[in-house]
Amino acid sequence: MEKYLTAPFTAEKTANLKAGDYVYITGTVYTARDAAHKRMAETLEKGEPLPFDIRDQLIYYLGPSPAREGRVIGSAGPTTSSRMDKYAPELLDLGLRGMIGKGKRNQQVIDAIVRNQSVYFAAVGGAGALLSKCIKKAEVIAYEDLGTEAIRKLEVENLPVIVVIDQEGRNQYEIAVEEWQKEI
To answer: What are 155-175's pLDDT values in tens digits?
Structure first.
């Protein structure tokens, strides 16, 4: 099923999302990869506030390439989500509503998704040049010294993603394997 949603999200917006749904996101999305997640964890350990209010937000696991002339951002494909698994449960418990990346998540992340009524989306890997066309504005808001891994605030329009893990813990990767096994 196709759905069009505006970010930031709320629990009500994610409640109707099911594993396998195609979603087009418009609105504000933040980027963060490994180094930014590590820095956010260190910030929280010090008792300091994160560089943006994480409640009801989406983080896109993205480290874009440099923008070409006339573009707001370079290639914007997802990075492997499992690299953020050790940080994701704490961020979800603080109110992060969703994540966009690629690949599987560990059980602790899945449990945190269910516990917090969040969602995990996949963007198509290898399609970074096409995905960048959905990004209308990009601004570094924190950790500029990390270069491509700095936290950015993006304004996106109809960013195509697929619900991989919904708030009930249904996992599209597992569903697809089960359906494939029935076929053979």
So the answer is: 999 999 999 999 999 999 888
Instruction: Assign 9 a pLDDT band (cuts: 50, 70, 90).
Output: very high
Q: What is the mean pLDDT of residues 14-21?
A: 94
Residue 128, pLDDT score:
81
What CA–CA distance (Å, rounded) separates 138 from 86?
A: 26
Which residue is it, tokens 């890997």?
Answer: 125
Determine whether 71 is exposed, middle or buried from the number of CB atoms within 10 Å of its CB (0-12, 13-18, 19+).
middle
Q: What pLDDT does 21 receive? A: 97
**Euclidean distance between the first and final Cα of the chain, in Å?**
25
Q: How far is CA 167 from CA 33, 54, 115, in A?
A: 23, 18, 8
Partner residues linked to 2 by β-bridges: 22
Q: What mean pLDDT do residues 118-142 have?
A: 91
